[in-house]
Amino acid sequence: MSRSYLFTVGAASLIFLAAHASAQSPSTTANAPQENVSVTIKPDAKAEADRVARERRIGARVLLISLASDARSFHDQVLRARSLARIADALWAVDPDQGRTFFRQAWEAAETAHRENKEHRSLRTEILALIARRDRTIAEEFLQKLKADQQETRVENSRPDLWALPDYSQQRLNLAKELLQLGDVERALQFADPILSYITISTLDFLTYLREKDPAVADKRFASVLANVRSNVPADANTISLLSSYIFTPRTYVTFDSSGAAESSWPVSPLPPPDVSAQLRLAFFQTATAVLLRAQPSPEQDQITSGIITKYMVMKRLLPLFEQYAPKELAAAMRGQFNALNSEMSDSVREAENERAQKEIGPDKPSVDREQPLLDQIEHAGTSEQRDDLYLRLALLALSRDDPKSREYVSAMEDSELRKHAQTWVDWSLAAKSIKNQKTETALELARTGQLSHIQRVWILTQAAKLLAKTDRDQALSLLDEATSEVRRIDGGDPDRPRGFLAVANALNVIAPTRVWEAVFDAVKAANSAENFKGEDGVLTLTVTSNSLVLKKSDIVSDFDIKGIFQVIANNDFDRAIQLARGFREESPRANATIAICESVLNGKESLDLPHQQTFRRH
User: Fold this and answer.
1) Per-residue model confidence (pLDDT) at position 297
2) Exposed (0-12), middle (13-18) or buried (19+): which is 257, by Cβ within 10 Å?
3) Phi, psi for residue 381 in degrees, rounded to 5
4) pLDDT category, 150, cuts 50, 70, 90?
5) How far apart are CA 189 and CA 261, in angstroms?
6) Nearest alpha carbon to residue 304 among 152, 156, 153
């Protein structure tokens, strides 16, 4: 902590104390009350609360401005950019001019970080999302800088990239999605609307996510996309395949190459079809028919489509949907076209069984019905790698129905390393689902016997304790003692150790709030021994790689982060929370804690309207 920082805060504290003392000291010139006269002073509780709140807001502003001064000298450009942007965002309600200044400094730091390491490309989008919430003009200015920097070119009437947008447009869409995640639908659409006419997985994924926030708005945009395709947007069979995902297979996307091979992407947990209107579904079928029934151009004229085999495979994929949902005349026209193409296909194309091609189209076979063919294949597998791969597939099928039998399949694997990672995947998935379904006994049994890490066990124990807080407080407290013991088993230099203490603190806030401070103190102490702890990266990541499968998932765990719990303790005791934040030795957790504390005070508050002489500056 810099000396000037302490001086500024100290000076501010003296101002507050002097004002308070002046208000409380008796006047030397006041007349004494006359005898037999009763004097009753009733302090205005609301006025006193307003005074304390105002002093806290002034103190929070001082802290943020001083922290911004420190942040400009952070060696880590990523931390510098994030800190300045978050300070600007927190200050906006009370000092938007200062906020704009810090936003510009944050952008400069983000550009420096990007130049030094291209892996930080998403940082600018993250900073832009905070800026866009506050000032669209500045956000547009920085977006234009991105466009000039990338020198984006787009060749019209050439084959579009169905999987991603050009860099600048993708950055714009990422910014819009960040705003959606922050709950700002209106501002998100201001940035997304100019590029939603492009049909890619990125834009359709945005529309699907938008539908979770505002179905009517999302459906209106999708209807506009369909109308554009019918009128003037170049489109082919793969375009229709992607468009079908919005209505029938959310976040499951399938395209085909000119040989008929499928390329696909789908979520770990399939989403059910949305409840769209009959009119929107009809509009999709009309658009699909208009595109798929077009005459196939000659190869020398074909600059858009992927060829006749691609059209055949898309029609094969979508035909069950036409026959189930489309008007009879459209389904009949599609069936006739498909039959005509079928006669032109080679036997290998017609007979090809492509599991990914039919992903999520039509009812899936029950997972138990899909197990026997895999068991039969195990008997004929030629190598242990093939058998292990089949056992992993069996485990995943059983896991999809929360069947503990998935653990038996994993235990049959021969490769010890693969078995270990697969067991962790299965045990963690079963435990997380048990917590979600409030099956605490099942979750706790897995926590104690499963192939899990210390930090995974801590999460399960703390979440189970929260679930039991109202029905069995004694057991909940016992689980937190168990979780604390588990945290202490984590190596002292491991960032998971402070994360574990933060998870315990968050659970204590629900069950025994008076013990929260002790757990947060333990977290600060542990953080000072963990070099890579930043206080904002609470994620549990699992990876399993077999002979033919690569599984990876990341679960964001907010209870492992500084922000939430420091906002809680700041609401209880602002000064004590500040002292704890100062206890962090490293710049990142100290900055994150300080910003969280100040946000708890400043968010949603009116402007301070500070006189000019009360503007605090660091010299």
Assistant:
1) 62
2) middle
3) -65, 135
4) low
5) 35
6) 156
Q: What is d(CA 362, CA 208) in angstroms, rounded to the nearest whole number?
A: 20
Q: Give the CA count within 13 Å in the CB-facing half-sphere of 227.
A: 8
Q: DSSP letter at 255?
A: E
d(CA 251, CA 217): 18
Mean pLDDT of 418-427: 96
Q: What are phi and psi of 253, to 5 degrees?
A: -125, 135
Domain boundaries, the chain: 159-364, 367-560
Q: Are 282 and 225 in contact (CB under 8 A)?
A: no
Helices marked H in 25-95 — which ranges? 45-71, 77-91
Residue 573 backbone phi and psi in degrees, to 5:
-155, 95
Question: Which run of H or E residues covers position 262?
Answer: strand 262-265
Tokens (6 digits) for 202: 């990125």
Provide the H-helix boundaries in 344-451.
Answer: 347-351, 367-380, 384-400, 405-411, 416-436, 440-449
Of 3.40.50, 1.25.40, 1.10.8, 3.30.70, which CATH number belongs to 367-560? Answer: 1.25.40
Q: Which of 385, 381, 383, 431 is nearest to 404 (CA)?
A: 431
pLDDT at residue number 382:
87
Is 444:459 a contact under the CB 8 Å cutoff?
Answer: no
Write down the residue that tokens 């084959």 correspond to.
159
Q: What is the DSSP letter of 553?
A: E
* Ramachandran class of 37: left when φ > 0, alpha when ψ lies in -120 to 50, beta otherwise: beta
Ramachandran class of 402: left when φ > 0, alpha when ψ lies in -120 to 50, beta otherwise: left
Q: How far apart are CA 277 and CA 444, in angstroms?
A: 44
**CB contact set of 197 (below 8 Å; sequence gap of 6+):** 224, 225, 228, 233
Beta bridge partner(s), residue 264? 254
Say which DSSP state 274 is in: P
Q: Give kind and range of the element (H or E) at residue 605.
A: none
Block residue for tokens 């004494």:
32
Taking only the tens place, the pLDDT of each residue in 526-581 is 999 998 899 998 999 999 998 888 888 888 999 999 999 999 999 999 999 999 99
Distances (CA, A) of 476 to 150, 212, 436, 561: 54, 34, 17, 22
